[in-house]
Design a protein that fits this description.
alpha/beta
Length: 252
Amino acid sequence: MTDRAHPQTVRDLMSISPVIPVVVVTETTDSASLAAALLRGGVGIMEITLRTSAALEAIRRATQEVPGMVVGAGSVSTVQQAEQARAAGAMFLVSPGATPNLARAALDTGLPYLPGVSTVSEMLALRELGLDAMKFFPALASGGLAFLSAVAGPLPHLMFCPTGGITPANATDWLSLRNVGCVGGSWLTPADALAARDWGRIEELAHTATRLTNATASQVSAVADTFASLAGAEQSEKHDGGGCGTGDNRRF
């Protein structure tokens, strides 16, 4: 059995939660309290993006103070960031894309690595490096459900975590694809909730996310309504960086 707190492969990561929260921290973000709130809500994994100067310390704190949480580093875009994230205690790495040098550096850390892809050629190139699980990004802008479903035919051995344009309303559509292990999204950690340190709200959002797997149509609608009331309009994927690629993609 896989030790949930020490995942060995990306597929181990995908089995932890149907949604990987994608988090942007600031200097005032209490990453340990955030991690604890997500964990209480049933989500045992989080991706802290390396988009701010506070990210590495946030990873360090969450990892050290909340040992039950699997904390990863997202938006890894340089060789140096891969090593810095490992040194800070990250348990996995996520990148929006992958050059040969970046992919090798990420693999050299020994951590599970989820590289971003948006074309079949990119998928094949990473498969040649031994990778069989990838981040499909930006998911909606890169062909959406139809594209990823079609990829399952010629590449049945690959699994994906779609990110970018995934919402509470469409997450189950993505999760129903046979080549999707989980999805990524920023709606579990609204910026205003982080700023207000509203850990109860984040705990409830996490709890709601755990209900996405195998939900019926009516349950999906109820879950989406719950997210809408908890997350607020500012967390709409059209506006917060989780959109279809036409908006701000900083959260990834």
